[in-house]
Amino acid sequence: xxxxxxxxxxxxxxxxxxxxxxxxxxxxxxxxxxxxxxxxxxxxxxxxxxxxxxxxxxxxxxxxxxxxxxxxxxxxxxxxxxxxxxxxxxxxxxxxxxxxxxxxxxxxxxxxxxxxxxxxxxxxxxxxxxxxxxxxxxxxxxxxxxxxxxxxxxxxxxxxxxxxxxxxxxxxxxxxxxxxxxxxxxxxxxxxxxxxxxxxxxxxxxxxxxxxxxxxxxxxxxxxxxxxxxxxxxxxxxxxxxxxxxxxxxxxxxxxxxxxxxxxxxxxxxxxxxxxxxxxxxxxxxxxxxxxxxxxxxxxxxxxxxxxxxxxxxxxxxxxxxxxxxxxxxxxxxxxxxxxxxxxxxxxxxxxxxxxxxxxxxxxxxxxxxxxxxxxxxxxxxxxxxxxxxxxxxxxxxxxxxxxxxxxxxxxxxxxxxxxxxxxxxxxxxxxxxxxxxxxxxxxxxxxxxxxxxxxxxxxxxxxxxxxxxxxxxxxxxxxxxxxxxxxxxxxxxxxxxxxxxxxxxxxxxxxxxxxxxxxxxxxxxxxxxxxxxxxxxxxxxxxxxxxxxxxxxxxxxxxxxxx
Length: 564
Ligand SMILES: Cc1cc2nc3c(=O)[nH]c(=O)nc-3n(C[C@H](O)[C@H](O)[C@H](O)COP(=O)(O)OP(=O)(O)OC[C@H]3O[C@@H](n4cnc5c(N)ncnc54)[C@H](O)[C@@H]3O)c2cc1C
Ligand SMILES: *[C@@H]1O[C@H](CO)[C@@H](O)[C@H](O)[C@H]1NC(C)=O
Ligand SMILES: *[C@@H]1O[C@H](CO)[C@@H](O)[C@H](O)[C@H]1NC(C)=O
Ligand SMILES: *[C@@H]1O[C@H](CO)[C@@H](O)[C@H](O)[C@H]1NC(C)=O
Ligand SMILES: *[C@@H]1O[C@H](CO)[C@@H](O)[C@H](O)[C@H]1NC(C)=O
Ligand SMILES: *[C@@H]1O[C@H](CO)[C@@H](O)[C@H](O)[C@H]1NC(C)=O
Ligand SMILES: *[C@@H]1O[C@H](CO)[C@@H](O)[C@H](O)[C@H]1NC(C)=O
Ligand SMILES: *[C@@H]1O[C@H](CO)[C@@H](O)[C@H](O)[C@H]1NC(C)=O
Hints:
Blueprint: E1 6-10, H1 14-27, E2 34-38, E3 50-53, E4 56-59, E5 64-65, H2 72-79, E6 99-103, E7 107-109, H3 111-128, H4 140-158, H5 167-181, H6 196-215, H7 225-228, E8 239-240, H8 246-254, E9 261-262, E10 267-271, H9 280-285, E11 291-295, E12 300-303, E13 305-308, H10 312-319, E14 326-327, H11 332-340, E15 342-344, E16 346-353, E17 369-373, E18 395-398, E19 405-411, H12 412-420, H13 423-438, H14 456-462, E20 471-476, E21 489-491, H15 498-505, E22 524-526, H16 539-563
Parallel strand pairs: 1-2, 1-13, 2-9, 6-17, 10-14, 13-22
Antiparallel strand pairs: 3-4, 5-8, 6-7, 10-11, 11-12, 15-21, 16-19, 16-20, 17-18, 18-19
The protein binds flavin-adenine dinucleotide and 2-acetamido-2-deoxy-beta-D-glucopyranose (7 copies).
């Protein structure tokens, strides 16, 4: 009697559970497959990890539905009523109304200083992403922005053909062009040693830092310019999920019978048969299933098809040495794509404000959505006590209107450093930073006339004797050092391209090499966010990739089924 094909999905994150859900719901009526999801961790969800902090529902990983129009995640969230809240959650609703931008030294920057640079940055990114730029006001500034974007793009085309132009270089060319075209702007007074140009640059850098967390490219000079315009977002609002991102995962998993998902089953290597069976004996050794999965506990499992959904970071680590995850090693075209694509670290830090202490001031009852503008790295004007790992963090914001829980995002080296720090170190250094921003202009950067200009809100915080900002508790993610993830999400690095994302998705053995009848087709399939050309780095990208690989197998067996 012929055995049912066995499909083993490695990883119970969004991609793996979507594939399992699709395979199971499409075939449960005829019980076509034996299906397993093996997960190295002790929970499902992968880079989705809804948690709790200070009585609030918060997300350690995936946070936003990036555009609700047409998003399958949004559709599920609506169907299962996951958008209705039963307790406070991370919704970031105060963001737009309450932004307060403060430059190092304690100088609050009003809209007339911040907005031109924010608009410049936004227009440059829109240009890089191939979106039409807003031409609303028709003001002089709009001319600058368009000019800047065009000038900066010239830099790219002159470098074109090589395809190694970066978003970071483009942005800086845009800023230079903006300065060139707006030379005669009035110098600022009353901002200590901050000149107009220094402030422009530092505000620009703040936006770059936000972009680093969006893309996970620790350095925007490594983010490929060409590929930026291939990335797709859904239209509409970006929202968080009140019942938690995990509710989507639980819904997908809920259809699977007990025993399908196996937790704490970390795969150490995958043996496969690119050349087919050498002999009948070999075939028997392999139980007639071509793939042999080895687990860290020494156990093994045979399969006809494996869907690998581990992160790009895990693949990078598992394919760089001989002692790799695949035996025989993955073919060159695969390992090249894996090594060329970018995969960075992004972490979230939650801090709970002390209910007393800073609150006695009766000013910080409502902590502002704070945008932080720091001196550039080469500046000797830097406040000595603000640590380097906070200096590339763009904001510190309450997780909802009036929440006493604040959130910051970190990327790159800074995100990795955060993982190594103790709670106490974090509390001390963030407090020092916030205090120095919310206090009056600091002595080191105080200019002779700065006292005349200091901002009223800043003054009122300073005037309280209890003005030091205090935190009682912190929670941070550690995606970079967790061996099951080794980072946060993928990006197209300079030297790579969208084609590499397509290559990531190709099943093995490579199509065409299966003509020899002894080679089993579709032994190793690949899903996960890093296998989607236009929606990489997102939960819906992972979702689409899971559907894609489930459909690939369904199609494969549908064809065989017709023959019988
Ligand atoms: C901080 C952060 C913020 C984010 N914010 C957003 C956001 O706002 N919006 C958005 O859309 N996306 C966001 N993302 C990205 C999103 O979380 C991911 O793109 C998506 O969840 C990836 O799903 P996946 O199934 O591809 O991979 P994963 O979720 O990584 O699933 C892979 C699974 O494989 C398991 N595994 C790894 N190695 C092994 C092994 N050897 N054996 C067995 N199992 C193994 C892992 O434990 C994991 O469960 C964010 C991610 C992070 C880290
Ligand atoms: C998930 O979040 C909890 C905090 O609530 C944390 O203890 C755990 O380590 C996190 N898991 C991962 C894999 O990040
Ligand atoms: C948040 O609070 C402010 C007043 O402090 C108010 O203007 C704003 O509308 C509130 N936003 C939401 C989403 O409730
Ligand atoms: C911003 O500050 C400038 C001078 O520093 C002032 O002229 C302008 O009115 C202020 N704008 C707002 C919106 O407060
Ligand atoms: C990449 O770009 C730099 C200039 O930014 C150029 O000097 C270099 O030759 C390019 N490399 C490749 C491989 O195209
Ligand atoms: C805080 O301010 C409000 C008015 O804004 C006032 O009614 C209240 O008494 C103040 N509380 C303290 C402790 O000063
Ligand atoms: C938030 O706090 C402000 C004052 O600090 C208050 O006016 C407002 O009503 C509060 N909003 C909510 C939603 O609690
Ligand atoms: C302040 O002004 C004095 C002279 O008026 C000058 O010597 C000094 O350098 C100035 N200090 C700063 C910090 O600008």
